[in-house]
Amino acid sequence: MAGKGSGERYFEVSAGMASHxxxxxxxxxxxxxxxxxxxxxxxxxxxxxxxFGHAGEWVIPADHMVYIPPSRMFRLRARIPSxxxxxxxCAKEVAWLHNGCWVGAVSDFAGGMTDYALRWSAEAASSDxxxxxxxxxxxxxxxxxxxxxxxxxxxYAENSSIQKVIDFASRRGPGVTLPEVADHAGMSERxxxxxxxxxxxxxxxxxxxxMRMNRAMExxxxxxxxxxxxxxEVGFSSSSAFSSxxxxxxxxxxxVYAKSFSQGVRSRSGALHTGDL
Length: 277
What we know:
277 residues, alpha+beta, Jelly Rolls, Arc Repressor Mutant, subunit A, 2 domains, eight-stranded antiparallel sheet, 11 helices, 40% helix, 22% strand, globular, disordered N terminus, disordered C terminus
């Protein structure tokens, strides 16, 4: 394992370590790993985290979480002062459903459970049977928190032509069309569809839908756009159609999602201040 930056101690999992949780931040950090011995649930309570892996990159804003499976190469970075909680599973308590990392919104229940996990440091958990039982239970529940569709993910492609497609579509935004992208990539629409499915496991429709929703989340989260403005920006002809699609993708209506950021960090996260990393 190779780490860097003062956040290193927060995200390393060593052999023989007991499952436990700890708070981090507020602060900036940049941690890189060739793979840790255990899986980690990282919840962002303030600021914004960036995660990089071999299959792509993710954004983890406040009130979102990511599960990083064991032995996965990753880089976790906070470019702005950020805070959160990391729960470390050191005894294979999690039967993970997905191939790689997955990001999701934090429900009230998930937030309460990760807060409760802070009762046990690595040292305290090593001799506490309740801690072992708690992390087994948490590990069994965790996969259910990530049964939704993948969100806040920008994929990487092994095929340079498809990576060119991803980069071009990202620059053009959610209004980009299949003929435009195919022409830029120098291939037919049918060939592009086939390569997208083979490389990313997505149809063109799924690819552009994910791009639209991720952009919508960014507009609501960072720029405070109205629902109507956001709907038109990402290519919907009506706010009702957008709201329905957004709810199906995120599990929250656009208004509820936006409100959670306009009100700032939940009051329970105030207890997580632990000083600079």
